Amino acid sequence: MSALRIVSFLPAATEMIYLLGLGDNLVGRSHECDYPVQVKDKPVIVDCALDLSKMSMAEIDIAVTKQIALGKSLYKVDETKLRAAAPNLLVTQNLCQVCGPAGNEVSQVLKTMSAPPKIVWQTPRSFEEVLEAVRALGKETGTEEKANDWAKRAALHVQEISSATKKLERVRVSFLEWVDPIYCGGHWIPQMLEWAGAEDRNSKNGTDSVRISWENVLDYQPEVIIVSPCGFKTAKALEQSVMLKERPGWNDLPAVRQRKVYAVDANAYFSRSGPRIVVGVELLAHLMHPEDFTWTGPADAYRQVC
User: Fold this and answer.
1) Among 196, 237, 269, 292, which is most exposed with the fewest C-beta within 10 angstroms?
2) Are the folds of 6-149 and 169-304 the same?
3) Domain 169-304, CATH
């Protein structure tokens, strides 16, 4: 049997690969695969098709929406590097065109290879499906026991947090995955909030994050606001969250009056369907109920906006 050679087009899958002890088998990645730190030594095979570096949040939203509407990909695959990597397993997704190459694009690229790899598609939309994605990858790579063990421990841990928060009062929260325009939380976010002892009427369970009006946030009168722009780490989220202060009614919101507005590391704990969303539940529990849950994770996981 030939040695396992994996290419990951998906940051969440890359984190799973290292979780399962397969880092040495990874021979290529996307430009967004940045965790754990040693992955940065791997060749970048997928890059962004748009230069978003100098765009505002509103400009990024417009550019991405236009690219998708035109049927164009947000990503470009370096076919020369892909052939040189010679993977026999490729992990990618169909979930969200913003998060990674998917569907027909990947299929078209693989047609150029003389020995195309097997494809593992990951399309999780809930916490349970994230666990299943880890188990499926473990089965595919001969690390099934390790994958199953982690999935059991992860499920038990969030259940322990959930059981503890059931004794506490629910907190009204607005979880924002983009601030200009406003996008609500989607996919697994409502589950994470529920386990952390919170609720967000505007978030969409098990489906894509969508645009909502600022009036939806005002009407809900959140006691906590989480600013978690997809693809951003804490420093960038903090920078972008300042724009919310310009919106009408901002100073009257309970979360603002009580100084419970937080910018978080979306990349690490919320926007990726990877192993660290378990830690994201811990972080949310701390932000919702700081007297009952301490935070022992990285100091830069969140910052108080106001």
Assistant:
1) 292
2) yes
3) 3.40.50.1980
Average pLDDT taken over every residue of the chain: 89
**Residue 89 pLDDT exceeds 60:** yes
Convert the pLDDT of each residue in 148-173 to its tens digit: 999 999 999 999 999 999 999 999 99
The tokens describing 134, both together, are 């880890």
* pLDDT tens string 258-275: 999 999 999 999 999 999
| pTM of the entire predicted model | 0.88
Backbone angles phi, psi at 116, to 5 degrees: -65, 145
Domain boundaries, the chain: 6-149, 169-304
Q: Does domain 6-149 have CATH number 3.40.630.10?
A: no
